Amino acid sequence: MRSLMRDPVFVAADHRGGVPARVYQRGRRPGPRDPAPSRLSFRLQRLWLTPAVRALTRIGLPVFVVVLGLGIWLGDQGRRADLVSWVQDMREKIEHRPEFMVSLLKIEGAGPEVSRAIRAMLPTQLPASSFDLDLDAYRDTIARLDAVADVSLVIRPGGVLEADVTQRVPAILWRKPQGIEMLDTTGHRVATLLSREARPGLPLIVGEGADKAVPEALRLIADAGPILPRLRGLERMGERRWDMVLDHDQRIMLPETDPLAALDRILALNTAEDLLARDFTVIDFRNKDRPTIRLSEHALDAFRQVQSDSLKVRASQ
């Protein structure tokens, strides 16, 4: 018994089977816990330090849970219909708030006819929400008007849609078989006239392709100066040159190249020799080195009579 007491470890036997039931250790206290992590804990810590895993855990997993929940909730057709209806109602309430409503169309820079056309082209009836107005499409529609050179649209505070229109200015009339067209300085169509008397102050051009040479025609008209009161119009010949048509059925045929120089020469001859006051039908300056004059029948008869009288006088001598 004493020997057992001296030994710090002894075994208490189970009398039922003779197998040790407990092991007693005396005189020893448990040591400190080992700070080293286990292999599984180490691997989990290394895995947690991976950026992809951390992002997946912090962001991906919550997003997946939310999406999964929404998918389950929206899986019901009735819930989806209720959600769509609620969104539409909210949109209608926001878009039709007073600060988004347009109740007036203001047009600047356009005449009465163009203003009426622009108002008729408005895609919606006022008052209307600014969200219902496609300003780009409306601007393109207005710009297709022949009388409009440019237009800008802006919604002003107070629900005013302002259209600032730059209108084309008629500069010349173009007579066609179908009628008379008003053109601007570039040759772009402005409007159609029923009669020449509606705009008597505008010069007149005729001929196929005359609208494509409007700038040159305007320069010739501006340079006509002294003969401008006699000028009835310009006729485009062969889509390449001009004839100046004067009163008394007289015509000046200008060359294809540099017609202004030829017109200046004609005006100089008229000043020096009163050329345009003579009885002629055509002054042909198509060849600037060899201009010709075609006399009228009356002048030609008078010229022949003068020649005949001259011949008789010489014969009598």
Write out the strand line-up for the largest beta sheet, numbering strands in chain order. 10-9-8-11-12-13-14-15-16
Structural category is alpha/beta
Strand content: 25-35%
CATH superfamily of one domain: Cell division protein FtsQ/DivIB
Ordered list of secondary-structure elements with their pairings:
Elements: H1 2-6, E1 9-13, E2 20-25, H2 39-48, H3 51-74, H4 77-95, E3 101-102, E4 104-108, H5 112-120, E5 128-129, H6 135-143, E6 148-156, E7 160-167, E8 172-176, E9 179-183, E10 189-193, E11 204-206, H7 214-224, E12 231-237, E13 241-246, E14 250-253, H8 259-273, E15 280-284, E16 292-295, H9 297-316
Parallel strand pairs: 4-7, 8-11, 11-12, 14-15
Antiparallel strand pairs: 1-2, 3-5, 6-7, 8-9, 9-10, 12-13, 13-14, 15-16
Helix pairs in contact: 7-8
Tell me about this structure.
With 317 residues, this protein is an alpha/beta fold. Among the domains are: 70 residues, membrane protein fhac (Ubiquitin-like (UB roll)); 93 residues, Cell division protein FtsQ/DivIB (Rossmann fold), CATH 3.40.50. The chain is built from 9 helices and 16 strands. The strands form 4 sheets. The protein has a 9-stranded mixed sheet with strand order 10-9-8-11-12-13-14-15-16. It has a 3-stranded mixed sheet with strand order 4-7-6, covered by helices on one side. A hairpin with a 3-residue loop joins β6 and β7. The longest helix is centred in the first third of the chain and has 24 residues. The chain is elongated. The N terminus is likely disordered.
